[in-house]
Amino acid sequence: MNVSTLDWAIIAAFFIISLLIGLFTAKSAGSSAKEFFLSGRNMPWWLLGVSMVATTFSADTPNLVTDIVRKNGVAGNWAWWAFLLTGMLTVFVYAKLWRRSEVTTDLEFYELRYSGKGAAFLRAFRAIYLGVFFNVVIMATVSLAAIKIGGVMLGLSPVQTLLIASVVTVIYSSLGGLKGVLLTDFFQFFIAIIGSFGAAFYILDLPEIGSLNNLLAHEVVSTKLDFLPDFSDPNVYIPIFILPIAIQWWATWYPGAEPGGGGYIAQRMLSAKDEKNAIGATLFFNVAHYALRPWPWIIVALSSLVIFPNISDLQEAFPHIPVDKLGDDLAYPAMLSFLPTGLVGIVLASLIAAVMSTLSTHLNWGSSYVVNDFYLRFIKPDASDKQLVAVGRISTVLLMGFSAVLALALSSALDAFQILLQIGAGTGLIFILRWFWWRINAYTEISAMAISFVVAIFFEVINPKLGLIDIPSDQSYLKLIYSVSITTVGWLIVTFLTQPEKDEVLLAFYRKVTPAALGWRKVLDRYPSEQVVVGTLGKEIGLMITGTFMVYSALFSTGFFIYGEVVPGFIAAVIALGGGFIILKSWKKLN
């Protein structure tokens, strides 16, 4: 691919601005651990919301969407569209609870909600498990996308791509802390939006495509356009639609879509000025993530079916790409190789921005676990702020190094996505209920974590070799159903066989966070003098459902208009506007 001097100048300017932001925020970020990881808990909703969107505007996301569309059509996106239910639950139920908790990380929550050795073990283990191992896998999938983009668009080797992407990211992330990440995300978000929309518009004008109408009428593409799967074949509609909507969104744990909020989403909520800003940030994120961004990626994915209908066509066009990196997800960067001078620079900068925004967030989030929930809590409780910031910066560098090494071994973003869902299967319900049901204890979470991991290893590693449970290749979705069922039954048994947390721990948590009292009645009834807060959980659930219909309607309204179906497009738009009106009208009553 021919990258002009202008394109390189655009890319260079992007790198320079990103580094300057890191340098600009370095002094304030280094003043304390709270500043480095939470920006002083003084961030506005719009900056936090844009940062969340920029983080999930990862370079592996358009690759993942392309992989899905090429395999399962537009309807295949329910694999991640279903997580909107989780997101809206976080917006209207959990955002304010997280902000009230005033913890530094979501792992610190364990010693607020539970007590004793079980709580300490959970915090320490998950600090390493999530902050290092799990986090490294996520960053490796992002780095894999960078490798494929660098190979197709710039002719770079995997090592060269990783060196360029990681060095700049590590510099501004380690210097600027969360504030540097947030400000850089804000800048990178707009670059990413311009790049994705610009690429989609240009690709539609390629001679091989001709126009949007020609694309939609193409014999290969026309069968991929439905929003819903073919309901005549259970092996199609169950894994693509029923499973994500009925089970996956509440039962699985995935970074950025944790049931009940968590991870870097919780980090953003915890750094908000107040509860209202925490709610506003997560609402903006979910609207933009699900309704604003998907269609440019989908259009490019559909276009790739015309130009590169098979993986062999990709291999022929890009013979220098290693065989183990060839897959349907490669089609997205392959399509970008057709872009002209100038737009190439913008799109490359947008893809680099997508890589760097995601990596920087995960680096800061992961290092916050290492520092706050492991080093400070268990290694050196009397560490100074200067020492904590230093450890945070060192862990940032190490995390990037580990993820780069793993990225060289991965081949598909979709494969990694499925494995991560499998590992977290059955744990999600705990993260939803632990705020509202007094009976859940530390051993509930420990058992769920252990069982889900063992079950995932069984279905992903042991069973394929030994064939102990017959799972037909066209019914692989059964693995998730089995995993969720086994894990859920397992942790429920453990919950009722172990002692609940002490009353004083439960009451302290209830007083601080003030969740809906329904699931706490058994404890509260033992203390008649305890003030019971009248909650609004029913209204919050109603707003969650309203928000879900609003965003899905906006998403499909755009799709209908793209397909030229004006009447359904207007109907969906009216539903979306109606949902928005209800939410705005109810806003003051919730805050």
UniProtKB/TrEMBL annotation:
It is a multi-pass membrane protein. It is found in: Membrane. It holds the Pfam family SSF. Keywords: Membrane, Transmembrane, Transmembrane helix. The chain crosses the membrane at residues 6-24, 45-66, 78-95, 127-147, 153-174, 186-204, 236-254, 331-355, 388-410, 416-437, 449-468, 480-498, 541-563, 569-587. This is Na+:solute symporter. It comes from Algoriphagus confluentis. Gene3D superfamilies: Sodium/glucose cotransporter. It comes from the Bacteria. Belongs to the sodium:solute symporter (SSF) (TC 2.A.21) family. CDD domains: SLC5sbd_u1 (cd11477). InterPro entries: Na/Glc_symporter_sf, Na/solute_symporter.
